[in-house]
Amino acid sequence: MYDGGKILAGLAAFLALALFPFWEPAVGGRVARPEPKIVTAEKRCVRPKAEMRQSHMELLVSWRDSVVRQGQRSYRDPEGKAVTMSLEGTCMRCHPNKAEFCDSCHTALVVAPTCWECHIEPKERA
Amino acid sequence: MRVIWSLVLVGALAAIAFAGSRAGGEAVFAVAVPYLALATFLVGLSARVIGWARSPVPFRIPTSCGQQRSLPWIRSSRLDNPSTGLGAAGRVLLEALAFRSLFRNTRAELREGGRLSYAADKWLWAAALAFHYSFLTILLRHLRFFAEPVPGFVALLQGLDGCFRVGVPTFYVSSVLLVVAAGFLLGRRLLDPKLRYLSLPADYVPLVLLLAIAASGLLLRHVYKTDLLAVKDLAVGLVTFRPVVPEGVGGLFYVHIFLVSSLFAYLPFSKLVHAAGIFLSPTRNLANDNRRRRHVNPWNPPIVGHTYAEWEADFHDKLVAAGLPLDKE
Ligand code: HEM
Q1: B84, B301, B316 from B304: Cα distances, Å
Q2: Residue A44 within a domain
Q3: CB-ligand 1 contact for B221 (6 Å cutoff)
Q4: pLDDT tens-digit profile of B276-322?
Q5: Which of B59, B87, B105, B288 to pair with B205, CA 20 to 30 A apart?
Q6: pTM here?
């Protein structure tokens, strides 16, 4: 007695499931990931770009802790310029296009910051 | 000593990836190795399963912990001692999803005075369950790198997994649990002299490799961060067969992906194929219906019968000469 048919059916089911990322784009259609768009006329961010990309959340949280716990609102960027530590007042002034900037990355990587439950999103300009 | 070899092996793999990617081998570690590893995994696993599919079904061994189905008024245990295919499927599913046999694990110990005692040992079961489910969760969460748009359940899973919101970025319960559970499984082998005696390098390598993968992943998320957008470009490139070699993802990322590739390539040839083999455990997936259904082994020789009528025809003349009565007249 052999059960080859059932075993091969199981193997086929496993392969179909395991290769989901390979056939899903063919079925679901692939959308290119949007690039985050910089709209400000300024040349630099508050820290070097590579560092911002990887650890802006840590910077934001250290700003928050500094403001809320120490009452210290002034930050010196690498060039020694004083910057006010503020999410709405600083980050979002240079990056007012939240949907095209912050969210473009966050959606692609399934990040949902809870900040906007309290902080006010900048009004999108068309 | 055997665990030292495993540590050396995994350490060497990590060093190869780190040094190799530094020396300009990014394309090798980001594209060639993952494709090769995936091909080895798929072909190797299929070959093993096809090998099993070509083997005859063994005689049913009713190792069961429940009442067999007999008379209608005796209650039978449908899952522990199934008499139907459906019941056996249920038993296999419980085995695969809840590790039911491991739940019955006992531990033999020599107490003082030379008394041998057996006691329930649920820790192995709990750690194994925690480990496997965290691993599954982590694999599914990693879909955020491979799929664009990301399927909705990934967000749900991430939300549940990161519900404690400890730190930014959040520590996931599953990645911490994976390290704790795999650490327990490794510690169990190292601390218990009986188990240490029984353990081979093939037992240590998977655990050490997994711990190294988890450690490199946790470091990537919380300490030596990488450019996740570039990782996503790489992963999406791989699954759409338009590979790109990203810039600035860092040596640690290559360590992570090389160790993962090693794990996948190693899986079909190691004890880790139990992932597929569990479904073919004869004492789990065969219903206990030996007494009702005839089992035919394919290697049984064909039964060559010789009927009385044929025998009578063979000796017809002699029977007639001896004056014996014949059936065929
Ligand atoms: C056996 C497969 C794998 C296992 C067990 C594994 C394990 C882990 C773990 C435990 C983490 C820690 C953070 C978290 O849980 O999300 C992690 C992070 C990470 N893994 Fe993997 N990984 C695997 C495959 C891969 C693959 C194929 C890639 C390549 C795309 C990858 C890229 C990453 C990256 C970029 C991070 C950092 C994530 C972040 O910062 O959120 N991993 N991995």
Answers
A1: 33, 9, 21
A2: no
A3: yes
A4: 999 999 999 999 988 888 888 888 888 888 999 999 999 999 999 99
A5: B105
A6: 0.92
Separation of alpha carbons A72 and A82, rounded Å: 12
For B2-321, CATH number out of 3.40.605.10, 1.20.950.20, 2.60.40.1930, 3.40.718.10 equals 1.20.950.20
Unique residue bearing structure tokens 């928050």: A64
Question: What pLDDT digit, counting tens, does each position of A90-119 carry?
Answer: 999 999 999 889 999 999 999 989 899 999
**Chain A contact set for B154 (CB, 8 A):** 110
Domain ranges of chain B: 2-321
Q: Which atom of ligand 1 is nearest to the CA of B210?
A: 5
pLDDT for B194-215, tens place per residue?
899 999 999 999 999 999 999 9
What is the span of the domain harbouring residue A91?
A: 49-118
Measure in Å the smallest separation between the Cα of B226 and chain A Cα atoms.
6
Report if residue A75 sits inside a domain.
yes
**Does A74 fall in a domain?**
yes
> Which of B57, B168, B252 should we substitute to test contact with A (largest number of A Cβ atoms within 10 Å)?
B168
For this complex, say whether ipTM is above 0.85: yes
Contact (Cβ atoms closer than 8 angstroms) between residue B148 and residue B141:
no
B118/B193 Cα distance (integer angstroms): 17
CA B32 to chain centroid, in Å, comes to 26
User: Does some domain include residue A53?
Assistant: yes
Contact B53 A11 (CB under 8 A): yes
Q: Best of A1, A20, A47 to disrupt the B interface by mutation (most B CBs within 10 Å)?
A: A1
